[in-house]
## 1
Amino acid sequence: MPKTLLARNAAVLVTMDDDRREIRGGGLYVEDNRIVAVGPSGTLPETADEVIDLGGHVVVPGLVNTHHHMYQSLTRAVPAAADAELFGWLKTLYPIWGRLTPEMIAVSTKTAMAELMLSGCTTTSDHLYVFPNGCRLDDSIAAAREVGMRFHASRGAMSVGESDGGLPPDALVEKEADILADTRRVIEAFHDPARHAMTRIVAAPCSPFSVSRDLMRETAHLARAYGVSMHTHLAENDNDVAYSRERFGLTPAEYAEDLGWVGPDVWHAHCVKLGEAGIKLFGRTGTGVAHCPCSNMRLASGIAPIRTMRCEGVPVGLGVDGSASNDSGHLLAEARQALLLQRVGYGPSALTAREALEIATRGGARVLGRDDIGHLAPGMSADFAAFDLRDLAFAGALSDPVGALLFCAPARAALTVIDGRVVVREGRPTTIDLPVLVERHNRLSETLISGG
Ligand SMILES: [Zn+2]
């Protein structure tokens, strides 16, 4: 007998399905980890192993985070990196990150995931690209499994250090043969291509300014041989573009195309300066973009032209980016910033609230190459979140509860369900002892930053 869950009587249930249905008094019925029925509560089975009444709540598909560096939760708001652009910010923080330990990776991953789940996020990627002192991707995968979050673990890498004209210190780069061997190892050990998979592996050299052409090409061959996605940073700001032109004689988009880094199995973070031709290329090839508005503002990188990208057919998802350049991991807040920033750049109709929510759900699912998450319908994974409309933040905003979710102060999820399992109940994580975790996280952060 499958385990069943019935969530019903939502003020509004936003399906984000192909018809973008919003159901007043809606609910869903779940068997094990899959949605079996979605609709007005009166049309659903009357009982289940667990019944949750969502009166006064708005329910949305679980949000999808397409770009993060969770270890950076240990180095938020570091004063020396507080007022720098990308390259200066990185150079300040690299030596600190060089002291990371496996325990720090595990704890910071849990902290970052707690933040995400409390913001309604159910699937996240993480781009880990520093592996000092015995750190491994395995450390963050183990943490994700403990916490119960759907996880796309990106095996990042840096191979071109300062002495070879790259940005990172030599001590933080790995040999390319080792990177490829370890990427192969984690794919074979952890990657699950099946529908409803909780763990997938992504091949993800850090950026054009920290790895070689060869590694980018070899990674693409390896990823495609195994059928895993590829991810990196691209065209983040003007200096990033200048580096690409100087070193490779190509724009970032041309460089990506030259390397075979375009296609529906590839997504790039930022793309603030992708350019008109780059946007057309990405649209034509179905290459995805992880839009990270808070980070782009924090580092003064610019405004990614998301409106234009969507018009040109570029798949766009949302990313909180690393916690050292955000310095938050609240995905609903990120959707709000996406909405606001697009308007700063391109006018009041550049993005609607519902489009911002669509990018955060369906958009992210497409970017990660998944057909089982991002909207609520029978056969989809049971990933959803509920927000309490009686919260102070929504006072006076109930004429449009869905719009309110994006326009009002970013709320905490009251309920988050991942793969049919309640991971946030009444606004509290069920798989994490939050005060204990935060205390441990802060202790490790102090050790890391002080070098002691
Ligand atoms: Zn990033």
## 2
Amino acid sequence: MLRSFALFFFVFGCVSKVLCVQGSCGTRSEDAAPQGAVGCGCGQLRRDGAVEPVEDRTASEEPADKYSRGANERLPEGRADEKEMQSQMVLITGGEFLMGTDDPGIPADGEGPQRLVLLDSFYMDIQEVTNQQFQSFVSVTGYVTEAEKFGDSFVFEGILSESVKNQITQAVAAAPWWLPVKGASWKHPDGPDSNITDRLDHPVLHVSWADAVAYCSWANKRLPTEAEWEYACRGGLKDRLYPWGNKLNPKGQHYANLWQGDFPNHNSGEDGYIKTSPVMSFPANGFGLYDMVGNAWEWTSDWWTVHHSTDQQHNPTGPPSGIDKVKKGGSYMCHKSYCYRYRCAARSQNTPDSSASNLGFRCVSREQR
Ligand SMILES: [Ca+2]
Ligand SMILES: [Ca+2]
């Protein structure tokens, strides 16, 4: 049967334990997608029963198995030599900025209203956490990600091999390009027959929110708040769409790893990449930060809400509780026609135990690490 989730999505075809990545490049851009179209759907893939067996679409209202999380267990901190693997950080000098926008590309996402936010200074990784860095963390701590515990994760159909694709009997109804793939994990980002050997410098994928928190905690860092992330994204520019300004491709140049072509069927790879790119492949913003939009979505520490006070806030941390966590920046799958979320004010959400082939993170800290 079809079940609607959140605002736009239905999911069918699933096993009892399926990841749910909710909110990602999710809903469509109102000015581009055809009437009735949905987003890329990565925002609505949920582990809590969002998919059902294809052959049984009219059945089952049973709640899916609850995932028991063990991801926030205390881990030993990294030693100095292990931390050499970690990202370079840059000081983001505190100040005030206008968060959100009064001209939202996707109003339903709570991009507005624009409000004044004051932030203290902090340090931020200049890049998304890479496979190599995550591998270092795992080799030291023995950490097992939630996707590995579940045994599956969501993979974009376009990057699966034919043999793996042919074995899959489930999909997300309104976003059938998202497939729950057994054996997909950070070590096997395109499915069980893939590996990270040739992409150690790419962003780690298939990490849940708790996995990201575990990594940052081990590195004596933390996830950024949404406000910190957005302030950093803007790179000192005021009220611009992108980290570099208002034009997507100034002078014909690409400034982020996004999708060119017709989503989801044809990716021309005009920017040089049809999947993730090595971190720092595109120009840094004014703060020296790379890939703030595009490449991989990035988890933040905030719970999701679409309601924001216009009162001035100092170091806001979002709602005290919620169902989904905020993610920012869009991914290599984002195209204006389906996922106009590669803007600094754009946002989306996922349940914390979600993971997928376009979702990663970076860390921040109060002190230099
Ligand atoms: Ca691309
Ligand atoms: Ca990114």
